[in-house]
Design brief:
Number of strands: 5
Radius of gyration: 28 Å
Helix content: 55-70%
Strand content: 5-15%
Number of domains: 2
Structural class: mainly alpha
CATH topology of the largest domain: Hypothetical protein af1432
Number of helices: 22
CATH architecture of the largest domain: Orthogonal Bundle
Length: about 425
C-alpha cells in the first residue's frame, strides 16, 4: 500500500518515509501541491501524510483539496504541523483529518496515527480496481480543473501576503483620532502632537492655506487650523498628508495618468465631501466621506502588480463591457474594494470606513452607513465620468442609475448638471492642493 508524504522539509520527509517503510508500506514523497495533483491522476494512495503549511498556499491546502474532490475524499489524511493551537486542531478535524501530529513527534506516535487512520478506512485488497465510472480520462479532467483551482488559491494567498507589504498608518494618525474622541482635548493638544513631525506640519499648513479651504486669512499654526477647520477636518488633513507618498505610484494598468491614483484619491475625497454636504449629512459623516474617498482605491496598490501580470485578460474582460471589479474577482479572486477593506481592517479603522471602501462599487449592499457608501460611489463615478486623472473618461453608472442614487440622498436627479461649474472649480482647487503636498 502506498502512502503519499507531503512536506517541504527534506529531513522531515525522510524521517516519515523511514517509519512508513518499517510498517511494510510504500512511502512516496511528493514535493509540491502541483505534483500531488499530477500523481493522483495515475495512482490513488491508501493514506496521505501532509504538512499543514505549504509555502505560498493557504493553511491546510492539501486537506482542503482532498476533501473537495468527490473521488478522493475517502482517502485518510494525517496532518503534521509545528503549531499546537487548539483552533488549528479543530480546523483540521472539521476538514476531515483522520490524525493530527505536532512536530517534533516520535516514531511511536506516528505509527499509532497511521494504524488508526487505516482502521477507519474501509480497506479493499491491494490491486482491486477503482470504483466503476472512475475512468482515467474522467480523473484527468477532474484533476485539470482542480489544478486550476489550486493555482487560483495560490494566487489569492500571494495577494493576501502582499497586503502585509503595505506599511501601517503612522502612529500620529491614531493619536489624532484619539484626541478627536477625547471630549477634553483642545487646539493646543493637536498642535503639541503634530508639530513633533515638522514635515507633516509644513504639508498641513500648505494644505490649509490653499484655495481649497479659502480661509479669510493666512493660518500660521496648527492650533489656528484646528480652530478654523474643526477636529474632523484636521483628522482628514493628517491622513491625507500622511498617505501622500503611499499613493504616489504609477498604475497605468488601471488607466491613470502619472501619479493619477493620488490625484484621483484626492478628487474623490473632495467630491465626496461636497456631495455629502449637499445631502445634509452630519459634519462627522461629511469627514468620514472625505476619508473614505481618499482611501477608496487603496486596494489597487496591492492588486496592481497582479493586474499587470494578467493585463491581456483584463483588457479582454473590460472591452466586453465587464466591470473592472468583475474582472478582478474572476481573474484574481478579489476586487480592489475587498482588498482595501481588509487593509483598513488591519489598520483598525472604523467599520463605516471599511464598508465604504469595500462596497464603493456595490453601495446597495451597505448596512453600517449606506449613505456614506453611496456618496463614495457617486463621487468615484463622477470623477471617472469626467475623466479626472485618467487617460480617458470611464462611465460606470448610466444616467438612470445616477439619478436614482441622487434621489436616495434626497438630491435632485440632475444634481451633477446643476453643479457642473462648482465641480470643475473644485477639481482645479484639488490639483493646486496636491501640488502643495
Amino acid at each position: 500500500m502506498t502512502v503519499f508524504v507531503i512536506d517541504h522539509n527534506k529531513e522531515s520527509t525522510e524521517y516519515i518515509s523511514q517509519i512508513i517503510s518499517s510498517l511494510g508500506l510504500v512511502p512516496k514523497p511528493i514535493r509540491s501541491l502541483a505534483a500531488l495533483v499530477t500523481t493522483l491522476q495515475l495512482e490513488t494512495p491508501r493514506l496521505i501524510i501532509a504538512e499543514a503549511l505549504l509555502p505560498g498556499y493557504d493553511d491546510f491546502i492539501v486537506l482542503q483539496y482532498i476533501s473537495d474532490q468527490k473521488e478522493l475524499k475517502d482517502i485518510p489524511v494525517i496532518i503534521t504541523t509545528s503549531r499546537s493551537k487548539r483552533e488549528d486542531i479543530l480546523k483540521a478535524r472539521q476538514l476531515g483529518a483522520k490524525g493530527f501530529l505536532i512536530k517534533p513527534f516520535d516514531k511511536k506516535a506516528l505509527i499509532q496515527q497511521i494504524k488508526l487512520a487505516l482502521k477507519i478506512k474501509d480497506l479493499t485488497p491491494a490491486g482491486t480496481s477503482p470504483p466503476s465510472g472512475r475512468t482515467a480520462g474522467t480523473r484527468r479532467q477532474q484533476q485539470k480543473i482542480s489544478l486550476n483551482s489550486i493555482n487560483n488559491e495560490r494566487l489569492k494567498s500571494q495577494i493576501l501576503q502582499k497586503i502585509e507589504s503595505i506599511p501601517s498608518l503612522p502612529a500620529i494618525v491614531y493619536k489624532v483620532m484619539q484626541l478627536i474622541n477625547d471630549e477634553n482635548s483642545n487646539a493646543s493638544d493637536f498642535e503639541e502632537l503634530i508639530v513633533k513631525d515638522q514635515a507633516l506640519t509644513a504639508r498641513m499648513l500648505r494644505m490649509v492655506n490653499s484655495s481649497f479651504f479659502s480661509l479669510s486669512r493666512k493660518v500660521n499654526s496648527i492650533s489656528d487650523a484646528v480652530v478654523y477647520l474643526g477636529h474632523n477636518t484636521i483628522k482628514s488633513l493628517v491622513l491625507g498628508a500622511s498617505t501622500s507618498n503611499l499613493f504616489k505610484k504609477s498604475l497605468k494598468v488601471y488607466g491613470y495618468q502619472k501619479e493619477g491614483l493620488w490625484q484621483h484619491a484626492n478628487l474623490v475625497a473632495a467630491l465626496a465631501r461636497y456631495i455629502a454636504k449637499s445631502a445634509n449629512l452630519t459634519p462627522s459623516e461629511v469627514e468620514n466621506c472625505y476619508v473614505s474617498g481618499l482611501l477608496h482605491d487603496i486596494g489597487k496598490l496591492i492588486l496592481g502588480p497582479f493586474v499587470e501580470q494578467y493585463a491581456d485578460r483584463f483588457t479582454s474582460a473590460i472591452t466586453t463591457n465587464e466591470s473592472l471589479s468583475q474582472a478582478e474577482k474572476e481573474i484574481l479572486g478579489f476586487d480592489h474594494g475587498e482588498i482595501g477593506g481588509i487593509l483598513l481592517t488591519n489598520w483598525k479603522l472604523p467599520k463605516n470606513l471599511v464598508e465604504s471602501v469595500t462596497l464603493h462599487h456595490f453601495p446597495a449592499n451597505a448596512t453600517v452607513n449606506p449613505r456614506e457608501t453611496l456618496v463614495i460611489s457617486l463621487a468615484n463615478n463622477l470623477s471617472n465620468r469626467l475623466g479626472f486623472a485618467l487617460e480617458q473618461p470611464v462611465e460606470r453608472l448610466n444616467q438612470e442609475q445616477r439619478e436614482k442614487a441622487y434621489k436616495r440622498l434626497n438630491l435632485p436627479p440632475d444634481w451633477e448638471e446643476q453643479h457642473h461649474d462648482e465641480i470643475t472649480d473644485l477639481a482645479n482647487q484639488i490639483m493646486e492642493l496636491i501640488e502643495n503636498l
